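Retro notes - structure team

What went well: the batch runner handled both jobs without manual restarts.
What didn't: labels got mixed up in the shared folder, which is why I'm recording both outputs here explicitly, each with its sequence directly above its C-alpha cells.

Job 1
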Amino acid sequence: MCHPSSSPPPTLPSVQARGFTLLEALVVLALLGILVGMAAPAMSDLRARHQLQAQAEGFLDSLVLARSEALRRQQRISLCAQAPGGGCDADGQWQQGWLVFVDGNDNGLMDAGEALIESHEALLAGMSLGVTSTVKTYFSYGPEGRSMSANGAFMAGTWRFCKAGLPQGWQVVSNALGKPRIEKYTPQPCP
C-alpha cells in the first residue's frame, strides 16, 4: 500500500513593504516648496494680466450695450466717467468707473430723471485708464447706433488700460461709426 506523503503546502514568496524614510519625504517637500516658490510670481503676473484684460473687456461690453440700447430705444445713449458721489465726472477720471445711461437731453451728462442702464465699479488698485481727448468726459451713440457728439458730429476714441509692471496693456478703440474693438498695445510707461 502506498501512503500519500504529507508535504507542507507551498508558500508564497515574501514581499517586503517599502515606504519613504523621513529624510526622503523632507527632501521631496523641500524641492516641492522651491518649485512652488518659483511659480508663484509667474502666477501672480498671469493673474494681473487677466484682471487687466477683464476690465478692458468690461468696458468693451459697456460700449456694445450702449450701442444696442441706442438702436433698440431709438434714443441717444451715453457713457461717462463716474464721479465718486455719483453722476458724471467733469474731469473724465474713467478709472473711477463709468455709467451707461439714457441721455434724454443730448448733453453727455447724466441728469436727474435720466435712466441708468449700467454702472461699472472703479478699476482695481494699480490699474490706469487713459483716454484720448475726444472722449475725455463722455461717449454717445445716437438712435442709428452711430457714435456722435453733443453737436451731432461723429466721435471716435481710444481707452487704454494698463498696469505698472506689465509689459502689455489693452485698448478699446471706437471708430468714426462707433464700432468698438479691443486690442493689445504696449504702454509707454503706464502712469
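Job 2
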Amino acid sequence: MSAHTQPPADHDFESLIEVDNDAGVDLGEPDLEFHDFHSADGVQGKIPGEENRRFLERGAPPSDRPVSIWTVRYYQKYFNVETADVVKRCAAALYPKSYFVEIVGDNPDLYGPFWIASTVVIVLTFSSTLAGAAASHLAGVRYEYKFGLLSAAAALMYGYTFVVPLVLWAVLKYYKSEHANVLECVTLYGYANTIWVPVSLVSISPIEIFDFPTISNVVRWLSAAVGCAVSTTFLVRNLYPVLNSTEARTSRILLVAVVAAQLAFALVVKIVFFAYSIEDDDD
C-alpha cells in the first residue's frame, strides 16, 4: 500500500522563498496597487487616443497615395451609382435617342453592366426552358431539360459584356485613338444588353397555345431582330465619335466589325436559346 504525501507546512513554503537580504534584492511593499488605465481625456487604455488611431490605421494607404489595381478599394468608385441612375441608363439604352455619354457624364460604372448581364443570364435560361417545355408539351413529346443552358448563357453574356469591350479598347489604343476609354466601352456594352430582357420574355410565345408554331417562330425571329436593332443603334450612336477619332479607313472597318459582332450575337441568342428541334418520343 502506497503512502500518501502530506502537504507541506506553512513554514516550509516560507523557507522556499527566503532571499538573502545581503544580495541587495528588494521585494518591495507587500501590498499591491492597480494602475489606472484611464488617460487624462477620459479614454480608456494606456495608449493615447491619437496614437491608437495611428495604430489602427497602420497599413492603410493615405488618401493621397495611389491605390493598387489589385485591391477591392480600387474598384469601389466604379460601383458608386444609385438605383435611379441605373434605371435612367437602362431606359436610355432601350430608347437610344440621346447620347449616352451625356447621361453618364464622368461617372461610368460597372454595377449596371454586371447586374444586367446577370439578369439576362437568368431570364434567358428561364425563358428558353419554359418555351421549350411548352413547345414539347403541345407537340405531345417529353421535354428533356438542357443543363448546359445556364452555363452557355453565362459564358455568352459575361464574355460579350466584358471581353468584347476590352478587345475593342485594345484595338482603339493600337490605332492611337485619343478618346478610347476601357471603362466607358464596358459601360456601353453592358447597358446595351438591357434590351435582351424583354426580348427573352417575348420569346415565350403564347401563340403556340393556339397551335400556330410557325407564327410563334416568326415572333421569336422578330423579337431577336428588334433586340439586335436597338442594341446596335445604341452602340453605333455612342461609339461612332470614338471610332471616328482614328483614320477614315480604320474607323469604317471598326464600325463594320461592331455591327457584325452584334448581328452574330443576336443570331447566337436566337439559335441557341429559342430554336427547338422536337423529335417524337417512341416510349
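One thing worth noting from job 2: Residues 79-273 form one domain.
We'll revisit the folder naming next retro.
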